[in-house]
Amino acid sequence: MSIVNDIRTAFSRRDNALNQLLLINVLVFAAFILLRTVMFLLTQDKNGHQPVLEWLAVPSVPGTLLTRPWTLLTYSFIHFDFFHILFNLLNLYWFGALVREYLGDRRLVSLYVLGAIGGAVLYLLALNLIPALRSGPAILFGASASVTAIIVAAATLMPDYTFNVILIGPVRIKYIAAVLVLVSIAGINGSNAGGMLAHLGGALLGFVFIRQLQAGRDLGRPVQAVGDFVGNLVSGRPRMSVTHRSRPAEAPAPKKGGLARPEQDEIDLILDKISRSGYESLSKDEKQKLFKASQK
């Protein structure tokens, strides 16, 4: 089938992280629709899918979480409501494209994963330590924490970048992020307190991620290392060890037509300039250096 080939092609490309994240969310959503329908037809139970959901969603009980540690990531790909997944995927597409353009695919994936973990951690801490939020066992699922991390990261990196919002007009993304955070805070005393707390955990992670990156520390390196390890296992590629022979101390000349990779200090300065004045303020040379760095 052409759909299967399209999916296979999407996952075979190494520079396609944003589309891969979107596709995984859609595929999981479709799989749960099919599962719910099949279980209902077989058992006449509308909640027949619940055991599978509980196996993949984050439980609020720490003891249960210890037996299902993978849920800290898997929960961030699960949706049931159409408008829930639509809202999340639209924001992931818009803001994820910005993060991917300036920071590259690997850091986009790192933000998604770390945002999910940050959201789950705050959810667990709040529901177990704050008396007002204790309401018995619960589960957390949805990509909102990851998406919020990406939105806040984009707003921290490029606060004055503008989106044209329907019926409103151009709005700087720092205000979009601020409204999202305020709505999440206001929703803590509502029926979805756990979800709102996860949003805030993701928002905090997105902010810290960019601030640390601007300080020269990439919090996503462990995620990238695990991803590389898993990718090598799946592809069957052996890990290679490279030994360099001693050579005269001279800088290697870049290949003809190529660009030398900029040093981290230069990238940090460029990111600071984006934070202050926006992407449009960069020179052509600075844009080339940023693009080259994003390909690492």
Automatic annotation (TrEMBL):
Record-linked Pfam families: DUF6576 (PF20216), Rhomboid (PF01694)
Protein name per its UniProtKB record: Rhomboid family intramembrane serine protease
Membrane topology: Multi-pass membrane protein
InterPro entries cross-referenced by the UniProt entry: DUF6576 (IPR046483), Peptidase_S54_rhomboid_dom (IPR022764), Rhomboid-like_sf (IPR035952)
Any one GO cellular component localisation term in the record: membrane
Segments for region (Disordered): 240-264
Subcellular locations according to the entry: Membrane
Domain DUF6576: 263-296
Principal subcellular localisation of the protein: membrane
SUPFAM superfamilies listed in its UniProt record: Rhomboid-like (SSF144091)
Residue intervals of the Peptidase S54 rhomboid domain: 68-210
An example molecular function term from Gene Ontology annotations: serine-type endopeptidase activity
GO aspect biological process, one term: proteolysis
Keyword Lipid biosynthesis appears in the UniProt entry: no
Membrane-traversing stretches: 21-42, 72-96, 108-126, 138-158
Keywords for the protein's UniProt record, in alphabetical order: Hydrolase, Membrane, Protease, Transmembrane, Transmembrane helix
